[in-house]
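To illustrate the input format used throughout this study, we show a single complete record. The first block contains the structure-token representation of the backbone; no residue identities are included at this stage. The design step must infer an amino acid for every position from geometry alone.
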């Protein structure tokens, strides 16, 4: 084979399902004396750099399990990020640390050649770009994104983005990355649920024009009087998170993007959301947080076209926006990211059971009642995505879950709306939609949706499930007092601030209202303890998603199906870092243990792999309980105690049937 053809074949098939099933521990690289907080491959994949709490960086030959170089970086606190500078022959290494410093090292002489001290808080991430070989960026907890150019100035940096201008003084930048295919795009993760995508070129051009303008006066690189130019920033957020913020704050649960990365082709953005799940955003086919139309009545098949109904060109139905506020019907529209509907007319027939013929004119009342109650399957892969029109649809599975994961109701809402777009007269989808709205605290909308359901399906109006939901909604309406007043006086939840220090600017409010929703969600891991936990694409075609977890495991999902396919024990405490090799089925991980672990497909002759977590579903459920736990419980768990009872009002359930409610029983683990 020609070398070029061999390389293309190797990179296309270097991560396959059989390899994932055989993935196991190859070696442990020992040399650090503290937690290993960051890993970085060079472009060729023959060198691996690591940074640690011991303020040392080590360059490894991972293929031969050798330590090539170890040096003290000059930092006085934990190292959080390490990067090879592109086109430097793997000679220049950049580190960022908790001492607020960024250092540039020459590995050939083992010396620190540049030291930048412009940040005023911990530096969490460094980013580089192949198109700009002498330029790099840093994100720090002072809310600043700084840009460095080693050719122009070796002692100072320039502020590229100041998040405090938009989100107040309390905002912290946690992570950033540059699009590998178009280095003009920079993604930034910070405190809060929103992930930001910036056009670096537009920002530079805007500030150059400001400097050249005769009436502009004197401006710095980051002019505090001027916002970013229009179109230079796009925001992404899981649609349910803005309205969940008050609930999370009450539970002392922090939402923060701990890691962001682009897919190899630059068309997708992956985010590990601390306190939540892993989310994938499609940058090509963008989708607004779900805004859909619900038909007011069942139309005949001739009236339904492409899953939509219209009256004189004006959409007729309930219009739900992600912030919980109704938009005027005249402004109703289906966003560009809405579900594509097959080009055929669908019959208007309530689907009471998948076993019943779709042409049956009616069914008994008891069957209809039972059809409204979702049933959970006896088995199945975690996170399996199915057709929302089936009995075992994701909406049914999520609603039937004993302990729903955060975001399950929003995901079920998406499934219901997709089913309704395919068939506007889908009985189960309409009922579950009302229930999802109720669970998401959109009580008024849930009541209107339930009334709409009763009008469409009068034979279901007095079913036990319908009556129960009606009682719950009306009880919630009567109990809404303080929350209702807060919503009336405070505007959309996503826009409000709690004080002057975290006040949100008008520009920030506009950008948040224009945010885009996620495409896929990956569940099972836990990310509440550390704010450097990574999630990455695995494979040249990004076939898999990998993420660390607070339980010491790392999780592997199929990207397109979101199925959880593999869980491996990667650390005694927490797995923070996962960096796939650029061209082999080879994975480097690290965490609290002072070692770097290397993983690759093990020989077929090896029948026993002690690192495999067989009960993936059990591990996922345990992580969900951990994420919902009271912070005191998590602290006790980290101290080595097992919680056998929960305080009244705490999340989760007790493991012991005889434990009294309102008590906490701690046993040494």
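Output of the design step:
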């Amino acid at each position: 084979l020609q070398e070029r053809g061999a390389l293309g074949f190797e990179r296309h098939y270097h991560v396959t399902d059989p390899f994932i099933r055989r993935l196991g521990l190859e070696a442990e690289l020992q040399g650090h004396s503290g937690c290993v907080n960051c890993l970085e491959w060079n472009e060729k994949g023959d060198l691996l750099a690591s940074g640690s709490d011991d303020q040392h960086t080590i360059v490894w030959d991972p293929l031969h399990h050798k330590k090539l170089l170890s040096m003290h970086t000059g930092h006085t606190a934990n190292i959080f990020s390490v990067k090879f500078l592109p086109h430097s022959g793997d000679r220049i290494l950049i580190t960022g640390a908790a001492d607020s410093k960024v250092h540039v090292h020459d590995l050939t002489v083992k010396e620190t050649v540049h030291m930048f001290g412009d940040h005023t808080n911990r530096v969490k991430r460094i980013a580089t770009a192949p198109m700009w070989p002498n330029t790099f960026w840093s994100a720090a907890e002072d809310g600043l994104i700084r840009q460095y150019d080693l050719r122009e100035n070796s002692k100072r940096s320039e502020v590229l983005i100041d998040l405090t201008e938009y989100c107040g003084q309390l905002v912290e930048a946690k992570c950033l990355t540059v699009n590998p295919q178009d280095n003009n795009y920079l993604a930034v993760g910070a405190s809060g649920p929103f992930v930001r995508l910036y056009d670096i070129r537009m920002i530079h051009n805007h500030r150059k024009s400001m400097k050249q303008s005769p009436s502009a006066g004197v401006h710095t690189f980051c002019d505090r009087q001027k916002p970013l130019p229009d179109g230079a920033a796009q925001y992404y957020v899981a649609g349910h998170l803005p309205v969940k913020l008050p609930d999370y704050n009450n539970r002392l649960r922090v939402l923060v993007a701990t890691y962001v990365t682009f897919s190899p082709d630059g068309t997708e953005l992956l985010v590990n959301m601390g306190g939540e799940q892993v989310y994938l955003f499609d940058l090509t086919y963008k989708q607004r947080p779900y805004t859909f139309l619900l038909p007011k009545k069942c139309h005949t098949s001739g009236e339904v076209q492409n899953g939509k109904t219209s009256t004189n060109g004006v959409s007729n139905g309930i219009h739900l926006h992600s912030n919980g506020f109704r938009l005027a019907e005249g402004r109703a529209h289906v966003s560009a990211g809405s579900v594509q509907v097959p080009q055929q007319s669908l019959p208007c027939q309530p689907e009471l059971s998948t076993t019943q013929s779709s042409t049956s004119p009616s069914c008994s009342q008891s069957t209809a009642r039972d059809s409204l109650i979702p049933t959970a399957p006896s088995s199945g892969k975690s996170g399996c995505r199915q057709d929302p029109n089936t009995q075992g649809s994701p909406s049914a599975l999520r609603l039937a879950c004993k302990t729903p994961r955060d975001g399950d109701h929003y995901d079920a809402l998406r499934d219901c709306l997709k089913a309704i777009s395919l068939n506007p007269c889908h009985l189960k989808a309409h009922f579950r939609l009302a229930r999802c709205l109720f669970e998401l605290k959109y009580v008024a909308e849930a009541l209107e949706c339930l009334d709409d359901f009763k009008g469409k399906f009068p034979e279901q109006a007095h079913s036990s499930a319908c009556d129960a939901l009606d009682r719950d909604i009306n009880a919630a309406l009567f109990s809404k007092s303080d929350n209702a007043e807060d919503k009336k006086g405070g505007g959309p939840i996503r826009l409000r601030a709690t004080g002057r220090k975290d006040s949100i600017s008008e520009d920030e409010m506009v950008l948040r209202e224009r945010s885009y929703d996620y495409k896929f969600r990956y569940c099972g891991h836990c990310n509440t303890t550390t704010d450097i936990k990574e999630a990455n694409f695995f494979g040249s075609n990004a076939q898999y998603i990998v993420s660390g977890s607070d339980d010491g495991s790392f999780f592997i999902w199929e990207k397109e199906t979101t199925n959880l396919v593999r869980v491996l024990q990667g650390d005694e405490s927490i797995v923070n870092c996962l960096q796939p090799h650029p061209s082999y089925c080879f994975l480097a991980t690290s965490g609290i243990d002072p070692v770097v672990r290397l993983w690759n497909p093990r020989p077929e002759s090896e029948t026993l792999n002690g690192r495999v977590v067989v009960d993936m579903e059990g591990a996922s459920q345990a992580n969900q309980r951990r994420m919902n736990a009271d912070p005191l419980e998590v602290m006790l768990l980290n101290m080595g105690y097992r919680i056998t009872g929960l305080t009244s009002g705490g999340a989760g359930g007790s493991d012991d049937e005889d434990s009294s409610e309102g008590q906490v029983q701690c046993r040494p683990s």
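Structural context for interpreting the output: The radius of gyration is 26 Å. The first strand starts at residue 23 and ends at 30.
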